[in-house]
Design goal:
signal; 2 helices; single chain; Protein activator of alkane oxidation PraB; two-stranded antiparallel sheet
Length: about 160
């Protein structure tokens, strides 16, 4: 009788460990230990002011599959050139195979400061693109746009 209970308990524990491994999956950015850029057209809205600019992020992935944006510049006219990104590094974490979160995003504009905020973006592994869709930032701001990574960054599970 004790042997049957021990086998049943062992089976339940094994199933629980298997289920736990599945739900605790960690997502990683690859290639690891690589510098990258992410560029593309973006729209920043603050207090009724809309700025259509080109964004250029620079960053790196680390050996553990995390990432960080270490610089950001904007172009597309004098107003875009006046945008000033702050608060680096902006930590980048993969939340799933199709989503990333960028922490501490802060951009100063002539209309005021946007952020600091955690910004969520959809991620397309096949294209190596992250897409902001009216992502909110503190200060009454939103950002929309698609940035393409180079080299192409992908999200994987270990």
């Amino acid at each position: 009788m004790y042997a049957i209970k021990a086998i049943a308990l062992g089976s339940v524990l094994a199933l629980g460990a298997f289920a736990s491994d599945d739900t605790d999956a960690t997502f990683r950015l690859t290639p690891v230990s690589t510098n990258f850029s992410a560029t593309g057209a973006t729209t920043l809205n603050k207090s009724g002011v809309t700025l259509n600019c080109n964004a250029n992020f620079s960053g790196a992935t680390d050996a553990n599959g995390g990432g960080a944006v270490t610089a950001a510049t904007f172009s597309g006219g004098s107003v875009c050139n006046s945008l000033a990104a702050q608060g680096f590094p902006w930590a980048v974490t993969a939340d799933s195979l199709t989503q990333v979160t960028i922490q501490n995003v802060t951009v100063n504009s002539l209309a005021g400061t946007c952020g600091p905020s955690a910004v969520v973006a959809a991620y397309d592994n096949a294209a190596g693109t992250l897409t902001f869709n009216n992502a909110p930032l503190a200060g009454g701001c939103t950002v929309t746009g698609t940035l393409t990574t180079s080299p192409k960054i992908t999200i994987v599970t270990p």
